[in-house]
Write a structure and sequence with these properties.
Mean pLDDT: 75
Number of strands: 4
Largest sheet: 4 strands, parallel
Radius of gyration: 13 Å
CATH class: Alpha Beta
Low-confidence stretches: none
């Protein structure tokens, strides 16, 4: 089964870097992206068939989106944070290399 990834709330450059890291692994595919918390975000994730979400919780994307993702249905959610204080609310992966990102996206 392919890991279908949806990218949310990060700058275009970050989305492109992640997409390039993912491209090198045929079992991973980016199926959608949104620059920020937009209307119909959860519906867009479902329509894309994503089973993994990589989410930047920095403004304008709110932590509320993260809560709704977990409430809606089980899926893998990787969170990117820019503020060290936010790390304590999550299970940190540390400094993330492209390889570590791929491993995290592949894990159930």
């Amino acid at each position: 089964m392919n890991t279908k990834i949806f990218l949310i709330g990060m700058p275009r450059l970050m989305r492109e870097i992640i997409a390039r890291a993912v491209e090198q692994h045929p079992e991973l595919v980016v199926v959608g992206e949104r620059a920020q918390d937009a209307d119909r975000l959860l519906e867009a994730i479902d329509e894309a068939g994503a089973n993994t979400v990589i989410l930047d919780v920095a403004p304008p994307t709110s932590a509320e989106v993260l809560v709704r993702l977990f409430e809606q249905r089980p899926r893998t959610v990787l969170v990117v944070v820019r503020d060290g204080r936010e790390v304590f609310r999550c299970e940190p992966l540390g400094e993330l290399s492209p390889q570590a990102l791929v491993r995290a996206a592949q894990s159930p």
